[in-house]
Write a structure and sequence with these properties.
elongated, about 140 residues, two-stranded antiparallel ribbon, five-stranded antiparallel β-sheet, single chain, 7 strands, 2 domains, Alpha-Beta Plaits, alpha+beta, 3 helices
Length: about 140
Amino acid sequence: MSPTEDERFSRMTIVVDTESAPIEQITKQLNKLVPVVKILELADADAVEREMLLATVKASAELRSHVTELVSIFEAKILDVGHEAMTIMASGTPGKLDAFSELLAPFGIVELQRIGRIALPKLARRPKARRLRAVSGGS
């Protein structure tokens, strides 16, 4: 659960494999819960979604520049540096984080945690069309 712009409410993001459980069934079950105010279904194409990864990776002085280069390429951030390891934070799509994890693996991942996906609806790309009234010329 996470806070929202309205302090009276919290938001929960639930990612569902709709092939194993129909979305209608899940929605009905969630609506039975008293505190549910609104359920919004977001298809992949209609959402901006991200995930976060924290990883501690072995990084001796000789290998640190290689890890730092990967961090830069994936627009991640180094949070902590020790003598033999670094803790890194990255965010992005699940696929991007999978790729990042795979590239970090050869260095030796000491610990890794990922949070589940979070999502918001995509914003409209075009302004709504305004209807123009026909104006008849006087004469």
